[in-house]
Amino acid sequence: MYQKEIKQSNENIVFHSIYFTENSFSIPDLTKITNMTFPTIKRVINEFLEKDIIKEWTLSTGGVGRRAVRYKYNPDFCYSIGVSVDEEKIKFVMVNTVGKILQSKIVETKDEDFIIFFEKNLKVFIKEIDSKYLSKVIGIGISIPGIYNKENHFLEFNNIDRYESSVIKELEEEIKLPIWVENEANMSILAEAIIGKHKVLTDFTVISINNKVTCSTFHKFGNKSEDYFFKASRVHHMIVDYENKKKVGDCISFKVLKNKIMEAFPDIKTLDEFFSNKKYRESETGKKILNEYLNYMGIILKNLLFTYNPKKLIICGELSQYGNYLLDDILNIVYEENHIFYRGRETISFSNFKGSSSIIGAALFPIVDNLM
Fold it and tell me: 175-208: b or e for each residue (b if 16 or more CB lie within 10 Å)?
């Protein structure tokens, strides 16, 4: 390995070690964690101090002789922009390195060339970022419901719009920032794996239920930061009801649920009103809509459990905003009496990101790829 690569590898290992702790640390602490020598850690620490990645915190107490200086990670040493795209809207956020949203915006899509519309609104969002943040923005991550096929050099923002991947390079040149693009389920996986409540797991699956339904699996197979992979599947197009020729997306997409509820209850304006009011949710019509929806979801979740046998199956996407109302019923459907799954009801949970996992994962992507 070349000397530059070794140096970069050392920095990535140290960064990975300090990123995942909220506690202060010393150089001796890091030598134990990383198995690197004191001079190597000292060099990296000095570079991190210059880049504002860490700050001096306190002097350690106790012991005899000179006390070791302690440091703490600075989550605001840089920022990143996250974008999520669907057929109805484009969401923008700017986050710090631990996913704290500092600025956000939603733009409804219009009937015009998508790339032109996207570029125009991305530039507007960047201009609106406070100058004290903008100078530290290191990149942009874009979450899409379609696929980014690097082998065949194309990407699909949805089922209709397919573009040559060169449009990303052209966009990078226009806005003067590097761009990462991934499927929304993979972006949700990234958020869950890096800062989610199940980040300690080495094996889990997410199903992202937005206007499109996507799925991704995560596997970590070593102790190094790069020792993991995730892979999305196009579950949206899988047949779940052969008799009626229904696909997964026809049965459990967020759009399907939303449209059925809004049509049945024309006096409400949002799903929040439906779920928070028992008059709607527990009415005969409300129960019928939810029962049909959840029965289809139960079939799909069972198939994922049998296919992947994950340690955790996390339901992400806009549907996760209403997980408190749905989880018990879903578990009762999936884990019926005498079920034969290896793991129990604790396997399935809703994401804590309340519909924002894919955009937060997108925003974290440049940080993870650059520094870990």
Answer: eebebbbbbbbbbbbbbbbbbbebeebeebbbbb
Q: DSSP assignment of 273-342, as one string?
A: HHHH-HHHHTSHHHHHHHHHHHHHHHHHHHHHHHHH--S-EEEESGGGGGHHHHHHHHHHHHT-TT---S
Q: What is the overall mean pLDDT for the chain?
A: 88
Is the Cβ–Cβ distance between 144 and 155 less than 8 Å? yes
Cβ atoms of 53 and 16 closer than 8 Å: no
242: phi > 0 → left, psi -120 to 50 → alpha, else beta; which?
Answer: alpha
DSSP assigned state of 67: P
Please give the Cα distance from 6 to 3 (Å, whole number): 5
Q: Is 310:341 a contact under the CB 8 Å cutoff?
A: no
**pTM given for the model:** 0.88
Instruction: List, edge to edge, every strand of the sheet that includes 54-59.
Output: 25-26, 69-73, 54-59
- Going by C-alpha positions, the residue among 180, 110, 103 that lies closest to residue 143 is 180
Residue 223 has pLDDT above 80, yes or no: no
DSSP 8-state secondary structure symbol assigned to residue 180:
E
CA atoms within 13 A on the CB side of 242: 0
Read off the pLDDT of residues 94-103 as tens digits, 9 standing for 90 and up: 999 999 999 9
CA-CA-CA-CA torsion for 264, 267, 273, 277, nearest 10 degrees? -80
* Average pLDDT of the residues in 173-191: 92
